[in-house]
Amino acid sequence: MSPGSRSHYRGRFAPSPTGPLHAGSLVAALASWLDARAHGGRWLLRLEDVDRERCRPGLEHVILEQLARCGLHPDEPPLRQSVREPLYAQALERLLAAGHAYPCACTRKDIDAALAARGIAHRRSGERVYPGTCRAGVGDRGIRSWRLRTDAGGHAGVLHWVDRRLGPQQQDVTHEVGDFVLRRADGQSTYQLAVVVDDAAQGISHIVRGEDLADNTPRQILLQRALGVATPAYLHTPLVRAADGQKLSKQTGAQALDLRDPRAALQGAAEALGLPVLPGPTLADWLAAAVQAWPWRPA
Ligand code: GLU
Prior knowledge:
Elements: E1 10-13, H1 23-38, E2 42-47, H2 59-69, E3 79-80, H3 85-97, E4 101-104, H4 108-118, E5 123-124, E6 127-128, E7 145-148, E8 159-163, E9 167-171, H5 173-176, E10 181-184, H6 191-201, E11 206-210, H7 217-227, E12 233-237, H8 262-272, H9 283-293
Parallel strand pairs: 1-2, 2-3, 11-12
Antiparallel strand pairs: 4-7, 5-6, 7-10, 8-9
Helix pairs in contact: 1-8, 1-9, 6-7
């Protein structure tokens, strides 16, 4: 399927329901909706609630209501990740059977010790780069997680990919991230596994999301290849920053959206995406003007 193909376009907005949508998440919602509409495609909603500790039940309705007030209506019933663990477990089984994944018994302390022994700078954006200790087996140590072999399928070295906005990108996943966790022993799948399984299951052809997630894309491409599923086209949008330059998120205290005037909220999101001030006596007119002004329209 070519990324420009109109009829096959399937995009999605995939919020984690840890709070109501904030200004940053509205940007991702609007961008993914505009790209889908500009391509004559479908726009789906997926609630990424695998992290049961962080996600709050009942927020699905709040988020759907917020989107509806902005005129953003999903074309299919929303998918909820919390009911899909058996599918993620099946995907992991396939990876294990193919030798692309392996169980890991390492604690954080074990990983720090292994990295120190190798003299490797061991943290990247606060995360430990896993040095692959348990590729050799866990012996009689208890399993704590399952990891993807970042050399799965013979992949070696730097992974290259092209973002529709950022252009050519690259990452050496093995050395910059390490074999990453797919599932924890408590049965909880990670974002990386769930997002790849579900993007494939929903037939997503185009992913449009915030630039903070661009760094995850090479991991997801490796996982797609290991599972033998298609790689979608990617567009990572500019991030909305708080006044202090921090990424706007629930963690940095972003306020819930004020949707008493949905067009004002949408106009703010559109400006973050580099769109001009748009006319529109009604919400529908405003959205139609935004689709016309969307800079990443198909050629
Ligand atoms: N659930 C993720 C988030 O809210 C987005 C995942 C994605 O778009 O791939 O940050």
